[in-house]
Prior knowledge:
The structure holds two protein chains of two kinds.
Chain A lengths: L9 H16 L6 H26 L8 H18 L3 H25 L5 H19 L10 E2 L17 H23 L2 H11 L1 H6 L4 H27 L1 E2 L1 H4 L2 H14 L6 H22 L7 H16 L4 H8 L8
Helix pairs in contact in A: 2-6, 2-9, 2-11, 2-12, 3-4, 3-9, 4-9, 6-9, 7-9, 11-12, 12-13
Chain B lengths: L1 H32 L6 H19 L3 H24 L7 H23 L14 E4 L2 E4 H23 L1 H11 L1 H6 L4 H23 L9 H16 L4 H21 L5 H15 L10
Antiparallel strand pairs in B: 1-2
Helix pairs in contact in B: 1-5, 1-8, 1-9, 1-10, 2-3, 2-4, 2-8, 2-9, 3-8, 5-6, 5-8, 6-8, 9-10, 9-11, 10-11
Amino acid sequence: MSELWRGVNARGRIVLAVVLAVLLGLPLVADRYVLSVLTLIFYFAYVGQAWNLMMGYAGQLSLGHALYVGLGGYVAALLWLNFGIGPWLGVFAAVAVASGFGAAIGWLGFRFGIAGVYFALLTIAFAEFTRIGFDHLGFAGGAAGLFLPFEEKRMGEWWNLRGGQTLFYYLALALAAGAVLLVALIARSRLGYRWLAVREDETAARALGIDAFAVKMAAVVISSAMTAVGGVFYAFYYNNLFPSQVFEMSRSIELILAPIVGGLGTVFGPVIGAFVLTPLGEVLIAVTARLGVNAPGVKAVFYGVVLIVIIYAMPTGVWPRLAGLFGLKGRAP
Amino acid sequence: MWSIYLSVAIQGVLTGLVYGLMALGLSVIFGVVRVVNFAHGEFAVVAMYAAYVLFTALKLDPLFALAPIAALFFLVGYALQAALINPFVGRPEHEQFILLVGVGIIIVNVLLMGFGPDARPVNLSYGFDSYEIGPLLIDKPRVFAAAAAILVAAGLFWFFRRTRTGTAIRACADNLVGAGVVGLNVKRLYALTFGLGLACVGAAGALLVTIADPTPTLGPAYTLLAFIIVIIGGMGSMAGALVGGVLIGVSEALAGFLFAPSMKSMFSFALLIAVLVLRPQGLMGRRA
Lengths: 333, 288
């Protein structure tokens, strides 16, 4: 366990413990709105972490991660609607399907030497292909969407993920914390170091005897499986799924912003990124509403400007800078 | 019956030539500057709105609006590359990607604020005219648009093959270090190239209004379309962009006719996957 936290020093660990304690106790005092924003932050930290594993550690740029969110969500939702199979079981099917797709895309990409922008476009192509496919898939609701019914009598059935804001708050917190733990563990394992080697120089890594294909396959399978779990959460939290909303490329982009802004290839980057971006969006909504500007695009324009400024000024992300500034950094990045 | 299929296919070829011109801009930018312009389709949509404004305000036919729009886009592209994108040349792809996605998001939403979410059709006086050749029916606006697209593309081919500046730009693409060694001003040539790429998009966008009605959300779809075409045709191959455009135009037209219009891009993505796997250098590209 001590190996795990090599990235943060003693002060960093104390900060982490305090933040975690505050977040655990928050539902006692905070109102629904604050909890819903935090739930969203945890969700983006979680899926961002899953993407970070593949891009930040293994160096494989995927721009189609919405595919795994959508597949995970749809599989679990369809099992629940048609067979009454609860999400705790359904998540296994969701993970199996999504990681199967991930493995297929990875196999095609890595076996045929599709790299960089080309690999990114391959992932987009699969996500868009699936989106249009689901638009025409009758049993999954098609373009009209799939809805999970809200039943009063089922409220509080946490084992079926039927419940209020607090349930989803803790679930999202557990997911995000679990993802941080998992990535921290893998990053310090043999696999993690092999990923870094492949990311930095694949030819050199292979010269050292690393099976680059197997290592990259591991990255895409683990990442897609993790993302699918996020999809199950999405489906049962929002209770509706539309192909045009879950599979869209803008969703894939939304999901990768937190790790890029926070810091790619770092354990805490995606978390910090989510804590920066999601509240920023909320603040922008509030400010534009207060100013009486009722233009739908204002928030998104600010978002675009922020993206450009951050990638321009801090291309390695906010977290490394922040950690240095407050002296939270340990020996390893 | 065959005459209907042939008519649809010919419409596809004509539309595809305009797509090809749009993709040509992307191919030139990627081939020389090595920056992935993920705001490409968004720029095309800006040009569509420019053509719409010129048409409603001045009754200017998009075929003639093409020239001023392309010129303006050249300046915008030059300035954009010189001011914003140059520091990102040679940086990791995902950083370029985020930068241009940011640009794209701004474009889409500024358009949304300015024009609203509804489509803004350009109603040409000859919009519904068509040529009858035997049993075939060919839309008149598409014929004009395709002819204009070929003309602009030919101009670009000529520039890159026959002028000193065009040769210098090709030198940058072939051997960057060598180009620097012989004293070429790479930064200026890059800005010039980005300008030319955007001029292509501007011209293509002006022509696209005769084929599709502009809405702000069309941008990302056109970006993907341009990437599909360029990869199918072969990254960096100028003729490939036009061939890829025609191929996608025909595939879209036939798929929309035989299945459902909403399924047409599914076939484009399937084609993209097939090309990436079977012939990653593209149909007309050279193996790296």
